[in-house]
Design a protein that fits this description.
The chain is mainly α and about 120 residues long. The chain has two domains: about 1-70; about 75-115. It contains two helices and no strands.
Length: about 120
Amino acid sequence: MATTKTRKPAAKKAVSDSYLYVPLGAGQLFVEKTRTLSKKAVDFAQDRRKDAFRTYEDLAKRGEKLAKSIRTSVATRRAVDQTKIAQSRIKAAATSVRKAVGETADATKAAARKVS
């Protein structure tokens, strides 16, 4: 019976010591899990950022290729040439109208002088 009496205090001591160690162990587990989770979150965010950057670069390359294709196309060159021709014709027409208005004004003045 002497052995049972010594075991009870040892068991009580072990249980009472565990009250101190359990919160410590739980805190350490919490810190480890938090570090693991935060590392996973950072990795996930960096992967998404890299994917977004790759997508952005891909779209920029596609847009650049399309713009170059449009700039060098035959239809675009033809349209630019036609626009230049139209601009020169409009300029010439404006000059003709301005001269005609001036001549008409002169003719009107001359006719008014004859009538008076």
